[in-house]
Amino acid sequence: MSPTPVPQPAFEPIPARGLTDDVYDTLLDMLTSGVFEPDAPLYIDRLARSLQVSPTPVREALARLESTGLISRTTRRGYRVAPPMSAEQMRELVEARLVLEAGALERALEDKEALVADLRSAWERHRAEAEKFSDPTLVFDVQAVHEYFEIDWSFHQAILDHCGNRYINRSVNALSFSVHRMRQTIGAGATDAPIAVAEHAAILRALEEGRDEDALDALASHLRNVAARSTQKDEGVDEGVGDVRKDGRSGRRTV
């Protein structure tokens, strides 16, 4: 006698990718590329005309984009590009990256050979892309700067990909939208590209030479320097945000 079939739950058909997704991707790319000025209004009808779509997918896309922090909505003002970040917000952002990325690197050391190979590849791409900015006019090329920062981020992504913790990976990537806001706040092009390449090289070199603690210190130093450059404080570039403990918490590094 055949077993009684187990009833299966009813599922709604999964819809195909729609127009709202395409509008979302387009607006997200425009926001992260710095096409819109901080705090600029976003008019649904105007965007719809520019994108040659109806207002509905634009409205739906903007509602989704609100969760990224790149735009905000108020009752009377409608949607606007997020305002510039304060110096305190930028410092807190870098502090969060310090805690998460230091922990990611420590975990990634368990897969060190593959990690170093991927970091070497990412660094070489970063160096090649940075060399393009010997042409000073590229600093004002929105698309070129956007592509540069994507390659810059790939060095950090290599660490996240090897850390073996999906939640750390997701958490750091969730901060990437705020990183874009920070760059837009300070009007950052790729003017510090040679410095960033050198700081990434220090992390890579320490790992290749077996100096894992120095690599952790170099990563923390790099992120602190980003904070100092971003907030444009008259302070030493290795000051102001705090060190990272070996256990990943903010504070003085423990040995």
TrEMBL record:
GO molecular function, one term: DNA-binding transcription factor activity
Composition bias type Basic and acidic residues, residue spans: 242-255
Annotated ranges, domain HTH gntR-type: 17-84
InterPro entries the record matches: GntR_C (IPR011711), TF_FadR/GntR_C (IPR008920), Tscrpt_reg_HTH_GntR (IPR000524), WH-like_DNA-bd_sf (IPR036388), WH_DNA-bd_sf (IPR036390)
Keywords, sorted A to Z: DNA-binding, Transcription, Transcription regulation
Region span, Disordered: 229-255
PROSITE patterns linked: HTH_GNTR (PS50949)
Protein name: Transcriptional regulator, GntR family
Lineage, uppermost ranks: Bacteria, Bacillati, Actinomycetota, Actinomycetes, Actinomycetales
